[in-house]
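Possible regression after last week's pipeline update?

I re-ran a chain I had predicted before the update to compare outputs. Posting the input and the new output here so someone can diff against the archived version. Not blocking, just want to make sure nothing changed silently.
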Amino acid sequence: MGAREPTYEDIARAVRALKAKRHATIVAHNYQPPEIYDLADFLGDSLELARKSAAVDEAVIVFCGVHFMAESAKILSPQKTVLLPEPEAGCSLADYAEPEAVRAMKAQHPAAAVVSYVNSSAAVKAESDICCTSANAVKVVNSLDEHEVIFLPDGNLGRYVQTQTDKTVIPWEGNCCVHDYVTRELMEATKAAHPGAKVMVHPECRLEVIELGDYTCSTGQMLTVSRAEPYDEWIVVTDPGMCERLRREVPGKAFWAVPTMAPCYTMNITTPAKVRDALFALEPTIEVPEPVRVKAERALRRMIEL
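New output (post-update):
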């Protein structure tokens, strides 16, 4: 008779023991599945978690998210060991921009500043003047002296920023496949199904969808808005995984995802067993070459200082 398969509780106990042994902190992005939430010390968006990773005393960071997020943690905490439990957890949006292509675009627009969304690789951040998040993209662009701005890699977010600024925004033609899936027709059908709900839309969505929303929000802003506003029903136009965190932290309110909107595949391939195994082996680790890290950190720090 073979040994029984470990249960979630077995794995969770092993994770807790290994976390103490390794002096580790586990951070998880808002889009991670619930069983990862329950293992994490901190939940948040990518930059929030990178900054939290830099602030904690622990020398080992287990990043439950995707590759560019773990890179950001390493950029801000070069002395720490950053583990990405699932090495195949990439980001199709970040993959749209490569450093060589960014350099070519800069050569075509030599007077333009380069703003890279945090959903980009360390190598692309290193080619940038400043980074931004979905929450502060408009503020970052408006803070620049340059009138012309190359905005990458999310074209939808770049086009949204263009509606909020007098600067000329040159959007990179990339998108998040999860957010770009939502069309005006799908948004109208979702609103018709929940006529009393207010709508929070992530700015990675198409402009035609953002225009149908009541609030344009990053994931962090979705928590703030739904807590602060008196409305009891919300349509949440972002990765459906965000609804889990909202339901946990804003009890008594209803949160509806867009029907047929699939969650990000790579955000859901990190498993509790992979977290356990990463802590046991202290790998896979994230490494960023120091010349790249220094340049990327400069772009991140410039944003943070705003």
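Follow-up from reviewer: compared with the archived run. The two ends are 62 Å apart (CA to CA). Marking as no regression found.
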